[in-house]
Recover the amino acids of this structure.
């Protein structure tokens, strides 16, 4: 309250002093509050940043699960120079299958001479050789005694599984190549193996038309699934609890939903479907012996894209037949696909928008039967298993070819490199 | 009573078949009720239990051990409601149904037997069209008649002779019936033409009554019989038959 005039100056002074003190207090208080607010803001920023990162990662995971995580790397790929292709020779007969360890440091290859060789990617030397086991006699070091048709490695690089024509699945420790278990149960040659990503669950299929589920860590057999009407040719799986099989002469591609014990049936190829590879959780690519390569989506029973005579025609004019597609591979969660045949090249393809088109990118010259193709997890290189004969039989023999594992580097035009999954 | 989900062999019964196959061979084994199996499993040693697990698979073994039938074997994917978008979706089937060993590789079509007499594709019977298209049959019939006559010359007595005789008679009767039919047809045709001519000239078409038709046919028959000189026999037979018929109408003679 404003006092009377005579006491004003004193009071005013007092008031001014008081106000200054009050103001000072106020000022200090405000300063303190400011500081607090700033601190809190910084903290909030840090938290938000963290949350964004975590959220981003979770989002990526969800997209990957749904099959929608997609990096288009195909357009950056250039054809490598033939001199850059490294050839690792050591097998005596045609290579039938190969796998790359998840850290891209080693390659396991198996051949018709029933041996498995572990190669080092960097040096190209043989790290380990699992020799062939003689049939019949016991007390031998474990090994295969018939053609090894398929191999698989778990996503943590711990277990290696290999299946052969004598109905056996052998489990090895990938690091030391020590034999761990043998799974019997199939009634005919084992033609496809795949580990479920992130687990030690193994899916296998065989010429006895069944798909079997095994648990490698517990060394046990889980269950069998039926549905194919003819010998199954190949199998692949990602991180979902389902696998996809190529049905061979059956003419169907089947997706097996294991927890629900059901299957989805897809039709579309005319020839025998020989190879299949999952591109992401929702799409896959398959190749048949009528030369056609097809892209599939889980929601349509017919292929989304079909490329006929993917490797051209062979034979005399007038009696032309398409080259059989003996192997396909796809870089995970991208749009790059590679196919191999015996047309003396490996073809790289780009999947169009929504996987509705398949466009030819380039050819990599490589003579022989390309019996197996695998991309590295980072997408740096492509490994091809080459043989003089087809991996399933001896219909032709290409003398000019060398039984070898070829490491093909994939140079890219300088762009932010796509990180592997 | 829970259904026998695990088609497991009771390993206690046949331990020798342990290493044959990893999957249960349920075509040979009888179905065992789950409760019985549980009793068996409680008696089995640990090794036998492990063997059972490796035969049957961990999934079914766990179900068996848990004992509850919460996971019904009938939990197959339910039939989807038919809507347009489902036409393009892949077919979803159960993965536990065994596929028979033999499968149909080439589509086999059943041969459908057709009886042209009752088939709609043959159309309706039109006598004129029929006669025209099957004229060639008359020649065949004549030839067959010649054959029968020749045969008859060979066999003069016995069963064969009688049979041939009957056959010949049947053929001749059929021929006569055919000719009769043709004659009737021609008659009808001429009448129709007459009527048409009359109508063209302007008169109204006159259709014969049934009684008049009968009279006409009778007259024709009379003429024919007279020509072939069988009139007497025909008339006498007719009288005899009529007499027999008329005797019915006479009053019954009562004593």
């Amino acid at each position: 309250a404003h006092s009377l005039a005579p006491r004003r100056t004193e009071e005013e002074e007092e008031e001014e002093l008081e106000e200054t003190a009050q103001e000072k207090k106020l000022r200090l208080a405000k300063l303190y509050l400011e500081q607090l607010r700033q601190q809190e803001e910084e903290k909030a920023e840090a938290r938000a940043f963290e949350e964004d990162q975590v959220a981003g990662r979770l989002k990526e995971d969800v997209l990957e699960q749904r099959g929608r995580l997609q990096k288009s790397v195909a357009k950056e790929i250039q054809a490598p120079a033939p001199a850059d292709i490294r050839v690792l020779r050591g097998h005596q007969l045609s290579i039938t299958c190969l796998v790359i360890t998840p850290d891209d440091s080693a390659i396991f290859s198996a051949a018709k001479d029933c041996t498995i060789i572990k190669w080092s990617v960097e040096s190209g030397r043989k790290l380990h050789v699992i020799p062939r086991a003689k049939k019949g006699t016991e007390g031998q070091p474990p090994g295969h005694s018939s053609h090894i048709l398929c191999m698989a490695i778990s996503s943590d690089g711990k277990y290696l599984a290999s299946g052969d024509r004598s109905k056996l699945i052998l489990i090895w420790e990938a690091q030391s190549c020590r034999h761990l278990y043998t799974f019997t149960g199939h009634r005919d040659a084992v033609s496809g193996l795949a580990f479920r990503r992130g687990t030690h669950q193994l899916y296998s299929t065989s010429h006895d038309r069944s798909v079997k589920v095994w648990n490698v860590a517990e060394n046990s057999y889980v269950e069998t699934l039926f549905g194919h009407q003819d010998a199954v040719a190949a199998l692949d799986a990602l991180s979902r609890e389902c696998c996809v099989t190529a049905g061979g002469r059956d003419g169907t591609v089947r997706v097996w939903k294991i927890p629900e014990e059901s299957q989805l049936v897809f039709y579309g190829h005319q020839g025998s479907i020989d190879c299949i590879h999952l591109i992401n959780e929702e799409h896959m690519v398959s190749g048949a012996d009528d030369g056609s390569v097809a892209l599939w989506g889980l929601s349509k029973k017919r292929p989304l894209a079909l490329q006929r005579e993917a490797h051209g025609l062979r034979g005399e004019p007038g009696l032309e037949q398409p080259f059989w597609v003996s192997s396909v591979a796809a870089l995970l969660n991208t749009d790059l696909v590679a196919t191999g045949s015996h047309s003396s090249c490996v073809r790289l393809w780009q999947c169009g928008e929504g996987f509705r088109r398949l466009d030819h990118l380039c050819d990599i010259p490589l003579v022989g039967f390309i019996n197996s193709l695998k991309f590295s997890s980072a997408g740096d290189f492509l490994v091809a298993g080459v043989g003089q004969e087809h991996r399933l039989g001896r219909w032709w023999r290409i003398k000019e070819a060398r039984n070898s594992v070829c490491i093909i580097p994939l140079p890219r035009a300088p762009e932010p490199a796509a990180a592997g999954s | 009573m829970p259904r026998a989900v695990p088609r497991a062999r009771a390993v206690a019964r046949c331990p020798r078949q342990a290493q044959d196959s990893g999957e249960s061979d349920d075509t040979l084994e009888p179905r065992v009720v789950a409760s019985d199996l549980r009793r068996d499993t409680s008696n089995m040693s640990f090794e036998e239990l492990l063997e059972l697990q490796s035969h049957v698979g961990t999934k079914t073994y766990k179900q068996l051990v848990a004992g509850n039938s919460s996971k019904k074997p009938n939990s197959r994917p339910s039939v989807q409601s038919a809507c347009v978008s489902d036409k393009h979706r892949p077919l979803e089937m159960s993965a536990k149904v065994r596929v028979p060993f033999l499968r149909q590789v080439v589509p086999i079509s059943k041969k459908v037997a057709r009886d042209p007499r009752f088939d709609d594709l043959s159309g309706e019977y039109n006598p004129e069209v029929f006669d025209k298209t099957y004229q060639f049959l008359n020649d065949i019939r004549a030839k067959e008649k010649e054959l029968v006559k020749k045969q008859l010359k060979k066999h003069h007595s016995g069963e064969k002779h009688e049979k041939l005789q009957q056959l010949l008679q049947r053929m001749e009767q059929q021929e006569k019936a055919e000719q009769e039919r043709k004659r009737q047809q021609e008659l009808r045709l001429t009448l129709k033409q007459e009527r048409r001519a009359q109508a063209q000239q302007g008169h109204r078409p006159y259709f014969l009554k049934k009684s008049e038709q009968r009279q006409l046919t009778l007259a024709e028959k009379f003429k024919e019989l007279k020509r072939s000189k069988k009139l007497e026999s025909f008339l006498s037979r007719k009288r005899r038959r009529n007499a027999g018929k008329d005797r019915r109408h006479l009053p019954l003679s009562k004593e």
In short: Residues 417-421 of chain A have pLDDT under 50 and may be disordered. Residues 45 and 51 of chain A are 10 Å apart (CA to CA). Chain A is about 15% helix and 40% strand. Chain A has two domains: 1-66, 74-420.
